[in-house]
Amino acid sequence: QVQLVESGGGLVQAGGSLRLACAASGRTFSSYAMAWFRQAPGKEREFVAAISRSGGITYYADSVMGRFTISRDNAKNTVHLQMNTLKPEDTAVYYCAAADPSIKGFFGGNYYVRNWYDYWGQGTQVTVSS
Fold this sequence. Notes:
- The protein is built from two helices and eleven strands, in the order βββββββββααββ.
- The protein is mostly beta strands.
- The strands form two sheets. Strands 2, 4, 5, 6, 9, 10 and 11 form a seven-stranded mixed beta sheet that branches. Strands 1-3-8-7 form a four-stranded antiparallel beta sheet, with no helix packed on it.
- The model has no long low-confidence stretch (mean pLDDT about 95).
C-alpha cells in the first residue's frame, strides 16, 4: 500500500505558476504509476496528467498540454506537477493518485481512468484569480 500527501496549492493570479508535490510513503513507490486529477466545484473529477513507473512515459489532458509538466523522483518518493500559465479554469482541488500496473492492468490504456487508481491523497486547493 501507499499513502499520498499533496502540498503546494494556493492562490495565484492568471498567468502565474505553481508547483504541486505529492509525497508517498512506502518502499515500493517505483512500482506505482502516478497521476494528478482535479475536481472543480460541481464538476466530476477529471484527469490532468500521468507518469509511468520509471518516469519515461507521460500523458496529459488536452486542456493542460504545453502548460503543465508531471515528473517523479523515485529516490525521494515524490511526484510533482509544475503548472505554468495558469488560467481561472484551472481552479480546482488537485489530487494525487497511484496504481500498480502489475495488478490493475496496462498503464497506457488506463492512465486517464479514475477508477483504475487505488490510492488517493486528500487533495490540495489551487485557485487562479483573473
